[in-house]
Write a structure and sequence with these properties.
Layout lengths: L2 H14 L4 E4 L4 H12 L4 E7 L7 H12 L2 E6 L6 H4 L5 H20 L3 E3 L13 H7 L5 H4 L4 H10 L25 H16 L6 E5 L2 E5 L5 H6 L1 H9 L5 E4 L13
Parallel strand pairs: 1-2, 1-4, 2-3, 6-7
Antiparallel strand pairs: 5-6
Helix pairs in contact: 2-8, 5-6
Length: 264
């Protein structure tokens, strides 16, 4: 194990303080690295996944399988972020409000289980991005070991590959609200439709993809190097998207951008 991985493992052991860790667990590479290392160090871990309409439907069952394979107890916390009007109307403060509600609930769960430390997979790169939810983590004293140790996304992927995690190259998948413009009403039906569109697109070979929804118009973002592939697939791709109710299907020539509704 390299020195940085050893330092991360030692940090997790210190945070557990002889007890255990409660980890916000999406099943992505960041939180998977934390859970795998903690379990490998003999730390009791509760890997907690938020179950809500803002998460892709496939995330929870996949996370449960991963947590079990790492040796952690998997917990599913059902949440209803759309009950908050700010979240439901996709206001600029949506991310902060949603994140605060979710992690306040996680804090309650951790206290019930006797865990002092609640950690998440925020990495060092996230600190330089537009991440309104980070304020909620600070206010709730959620610890982000990767960010605090200066570990970037590239380093996370490198470490994950080193210890044999099969999610080392798994693309990030932020909450489905990011597929809609701000000040757009979010409904369970529309969120589900965006998630299904991306699931279908991944079936066409686009693993890094966003289905941006503008009413009945679907704007597809794929990496620049896959634009030609998307055009070649149009004959099958367009009917598949229209079957979901999109009357217009477009390809964004600027390519994939994380947070494109934030002006990127």
């Amino acid at each position: 194990m390299n020195r940085q991985l050893q330092t991360l493992t030692e940090t997790l052991t210190q945070l557990a303080a002889g007890g255990g860790l409660c980890v916000a667990f999406s099943g992505g590479v960041d939180s998977s690295l934390l859970v795998k290392l903690a379990c490998g160090a003999g730390i009791p871990v509760h890997a907690v996944t938020f179950d809500s309409t803002l998460q892709p439907a496939a995330d929870a069952p996949q996370a449960a399988k991963q947590a079990a394979s790492y040796g952690a107890k998997h917990v599913l916390l059902r949440c209803d972020p759309l009950s908050d009007e700010v979240v439901r109307m996709n206001r600029k403060e949506r991310c902060y409000r949603c994140k605060y509600a979710l992690f306040a609930r996680l804090r309650e769960y951790a206290a019930e289980q006797g865990f002092a430390a609640v950690i998440d997979g925020t990495n060092a790169d996230d600190l330089s991005e537009y991440r309104p939810g980070l304020r909620a983590l600070r206010e709730l004293s959620i610890v982000s070991p990767l960010a605090e140790l200066g570990i970037t996304k590239a380093m996370v992927r490198e470490f994950a590959a080193e210890i044999g995690l099969d999610v080392a190259k798994k693309p990030s998948s932020p909450c489905l609200a990011t597929r809609f413009p701000y000040d757009t009403l979010l409904t369970e039906q529309e969120l589900s439709r965006a998630g299904k569109a991306e699931e279908l697109l991944r079936g066409f070979g686009f693993l890094t993809v966003r289905a941006r929804v503008h009413g009945e118009l679907l704007r597809i973002e794929v990496p620049l190097e896959q634009l030609a592939q998307a055009v070649q697939c149009a004959g099958e791709l367009v009917p598949a998207m229209r079957a979901l109710g999109f009357s217009q299907v477009t390809l964004d020539l600027a390519g994939f951008r994380s947070g494109s509704f934030d002006g990127k």
